[in-house]
Design brief:
The chain has helices at 6-20, 43-49, 51-60, 78-89, 97-103, and strands at 26-30, 39-41, 69-73. The chain is of the alpha+beta class and 108 residues long. The chain has one domain: Potassium Channel Kv1.1, Chain A (2-Layer Sandwich), CATH 3.30.710. α2 (43-49) packs across α3. The protein is globular and about 40 Å long.
């Protein structure tokens, strides 16, 4: 019988809420994305996992709040942004190393 640690539960929990788009409050749009392709995410998770996103979101606070703000990341392609977000929600190594390696230059 396997036991899960708190870390395992939180990691799988974050991945689950991303996949289910549960209570998302932010949409990320890459430079080559249409509005339909926008990636749903959670401000809290992105800010906790990335100082860059934290600063971007802090500057967004001055704007009028809405249920789903859109943050344009024009420097990245959709596939790159999607991989980055997936990585940020998964601490368990479930994002393949090949997928990360394919986009590693975009994350610098």
């Amino acid at each position: 019988m396997a036991t899960e640690t708190n870390e395992d539960v939180s990691s799988s929990g974050f991945a689950k809420i991303l996949k289910q788009k549960w209570h998302t409050d932010l949409r990320l749009k890459a430079g080559d994305s249409s509005d339909i392709q926008a990636i749903s995410a959670h401000k809290l998770v992105l800010a906790a996992r990335s100082d860059v996103f934290k600063k971007m979101l802090e500057s967004e606070v001055t704007k009028a709040p809405s249920d789903h703000e859109t943050l344009n990341i024009s420097e990245m392609r959709h596939e790159e942004l999607e991989t980055l977000v997936e990585f940020m929600y998964n601490d368990d190594g479930s994002v393949s190393s090949a997928k990360l390696k394919k986009h590693d230059r975009s994350f610098i």
